[in-house]
Specification:
By secondary structure, the chain is mainly alpha-helical. α1 crosses α4 and α5 packs antiparallel against α11. The protein contains 13 helices and no strands.
């Protein structure tokens, strides 16, 4: 694997983790956000210099991600991106005062092990095969139902959160929903990166805007902004971001491999590593708790204060 692609992925990890932490700190000082009032949500976000700093860090991470997808296969890129969860946990603990449970720390380690298995499956002949574009029909057949599922799941989590006497959700359903949206976004980023051509910029622009990639990217960017910021304000970054990242990674590896036609390993051991690593990541995700700790436990191990944990009426 080209070293500059690996370096770009590591830089993207630092930028993404920094951006999420800055945004979370900014969100803790804002009024409660609601997906039902997106214009008000965006107005509050744009009025926060700290949030703008976080969004600039995420934008720089996006630019680095374009370089990664031009160099590394989808599975390898996602394996490196998920390793950034360790940095996120460290930053969340230091700058946000969030305390993860032992079960959550074990889950993150298991996720890293699972993705390590996926990366290990890339060694050998054909490991560096990188395709540029996907058939439009195949891409849309994957993207549209996934977006519908993500929006339905988020709406379902919102309805459950409004029920009285219900224990607060930990953020897992929100993380899964946002992860599906960003999974489609990741496929669009992969497609955009494949169409960039410095030798023929006019042709690259023509090919780009006659493809579905920029339109998927615009839609998932706008929807992802509203959903992710609302969820990030209500839930711990140290839980919702790893869940979202895991879903995005597994989705991108599984669906991106099919859509872009990057071959699965022919060697039985490498095939078992890739499929097994994906299965372990999904099982760990399903095992995460759906609610935060009860009040008695929170009294002994309080999280960082946030004035906006409730849902805006």
């Amino acid at each position: 694997m080209p070293w500059w692609g690996v370096a770009s992925a590591l830089i993207a990890n630092v930028l993404y983790s920094t951006g999420f932490v800055l945004e979370k700190r900014a969100l803790s000082a804002l009024p409660a956000l609601s997906t039902r009032r997106p214009a008000r949500l965006v107005r509050h976000l744009l009025g926060s210099p700290l949030w703008l700093g976080g969004s600039l860090a995420l934008a720089a991470g996006f630019a680095a991600q374009l370089a990664v997808y031009r160099t590394l296969p989808i599975a390898a890129a996602q394996g490196i991106f998920v390793s950034g969860l360790v940095l996120l946990l460290l930053l969340s603990s230091v700058f946000l005062g969030e305390r993860t449970t032992g079960r959550e720390r074990q889950s993150i380690l298991a996720i890293l092990l699972a993705l390590g298995m996926v990366v290990a499956s890339l060694q050998g002949s054909g490991a560096g095969t990188v395709t540029r574009t996907a058939p439009t029909g195949t891409l849309l057949a994957i993207a549209l139902p996934s977006l519908a599922a993500g929006l339905w799941l988020y709406g379902s989590a919102e309805r459950r959160a409004k029920r009285r006497h219900r224990q607060p959700a930990s953020g897992v359903p929100y993380g899964v929903a946002v992860g599906l949206v960003y999974g489609v976004s990741s496929l669009a980023i992969k497609g955009v990166s494949g169409l960039l051509d410095a030798d023929d910029p006019a042709g690259a622009v023509r090919d780009l805007f006659t493809s579905p990639y920029p339109y998927l990217l615009l839609f998932t960017g706008a929807v992802g902004l509203v959903l992710s910021q609302t969820a990030l304000q209500r839930c711990r970054a140290s839980l919702i971001v790893p869940v979202c990242t895991t879903v995005t990674c597994v989705f991108t590896v599984a669906c991106g491999t099919v859509a872009f036609g990057e071959p699965l390993p022919s060697d039985p051991l490498r095939l078992a590593l890739r499929l097994g690593g994906t299965a372990v990541a999904v099982l760990v995700l399903l095992a995460l708790p759906r609610q935060d700790a009860p009040p008695t436990e929170l009294a002994l191990n309080p999280p960082s204060p946030s004035p906006s944990q409730g849902v805006e009426p």
